[in-house]
Design brief:
Length: about 80
């Protein structure tokens, strides 16, 4: 399965507050320009600080026609890279 974990926090949060090593950073304010690129994945997992911004990103994907599974894990600390 072609799966990606996307952290939608700001670059500063990603760099200074930590992040899951198996995730990539696409800040929410730049997310709309990356939606088409993300559509190539079979499954997308979204994280942020609390889950709110990940929910917005999820809506952006759905509104752009992405029909595959999207999981909002909430805080980035919930990512388990061993099973990613």
């Amino acid at each position: 399965m072609n799966k990606i974990i996307v952290d939608v926090r700001s670059i500063e949060e990603w760099e200074y507050d930590g992040h899951a090593p198996c995730s990539i950073n696409i800040p929410l304010d730049r997310f709309p320009e990356k939606v088409e690129e993300l559509k190539k994945y079979d499954s997308i997992v979204l994280v942020c600080r609390s889950g709110g911004r990940a929910g917005v990103a999820q809506s952006l994907l759905r509104n752009a026609g992405y029909a595959n599974p999207i999981e909002n894990l909430g805080p980035w600390q919930n990512v388990n890279c061993a099973v990613a």
